[in-house]
């Protein structure tokens, strides 16, 4: 997707996190853990948990609204909504349809993407291709996640890691050459879903008294295995997109990685030989917000003035599946 006469650019970004701050000390009141353990093993200091009456679509709408405002686009011109989430309001209809109604976007095709923590980058790639095809003009993509209800507060190895929030971007096809979303790649390996999964609640293990008693509706993870895979696939996805588009690592101005664990990000930085100062991180404040994490970090980086015209930005993510994805953007 490089150097066409028309480019898909990000016109505006937005994000939202719930008000409720849950510190590591708060977590230590729920499970046997400590601020020191969580900070040194993960880099997380606090996370946000949504209110009981705040669903994924509500957070998605707040982030989406901010992205629309930042983009200056008339909402009737948006013709595509993609919501990336692994915690939809309900199995169906899609969260994207709920967002369509709540944000009153009259002329859209709307659907969800389920690629877990890689979801925002997957959505960016899909939306970019759909706009590039000429069949769509302006897209609202949102990564939104309410992980708190699927966290097992009896499992200290997982519940301390995740948080809730949403990140969004408005994409548009414009008459600009050689800028915008230069390319996106994704990959998947479903050979061992047990490394990170929510086993219950789907067609394999429908909700039952037994499934609930067996705690199968909570997130389960083999942290050590995920850690190893994360460093490997994020490194590979980053190298692959650079090679595909003919860019050197030295051309990158900013990396916006999935926010799962600071040690994973540091390993990626080392592997790619990119200084940590070029990474935008907010893991300390929000934990892992899954599909929302890259969107929130991108919005924060932009609003903090870390992204200027002409900058080359690498987005890279991995998640349950396993899935992974990377995207290279030249800011217009
Ligand atoms: C989960 C993770 C932080 C664990 O870190 P780790 O250094 O591998 O820790 P270990 O699993 O080896 O556990 C070490 C010890 O700490 C304990 N421990 C685990 N969680 C703990 C917690 N929250 N508080 C205190 N102790 C904890 C373990 O029980 C273990 O104790 P033991 O040695 O007595 O058995 C790390 O593996 C990780 O981040 N993995 C990737 C997870 C991820 O990114 N998931 C999202 C993918 S999108």
What is the topological layout?
Blueprint (H helix, E strand, L loop, with lengths): L6 E10 L4 E3 H5 L6 H8 L3 E3 L7 H16 L8 E5 L10 H8 L6 E5 L5 H14 L5 E8 L10 H4 L5 E10 L5 E9 L7 E2 L11 H5 L6 E2 L1 H23 L8 E4 L4 H11 L10 H4 L6 H11 L8 E8 L3 E8 L2
Bound molecules: coenzyme A.
Q: Can you tell me about this structure?
A:
The protein has 332 residues and is an alpha/beta fold. The chain folds into 2 domains: 7-178, Peroxisomal Thiolase, Chain A, domain 1; 181-280 and 307-330, Peroxisomal Thiolase, Chain A, domain 1, CATH 3.40.47.10. The protein contains 11 helices and 13 strands. It has helices at 24-28, 35-42, 56-71, 95-102, 119-132, 156-159, 209-213, 223-245, 262-272, 283-286, 293-303; strands at 7-16, 21-23, 46-48, 80-84, 109-113, 138-145, 165-174, 180-188, 196-197, 220-221, 254-257, 312-319, 323-330. The radius of gyration is 19 Å and the shape is globular. The mean pLDDT is 96. The site of coenzyme A (COA) has 21 residues, from α2, α6 and α8.
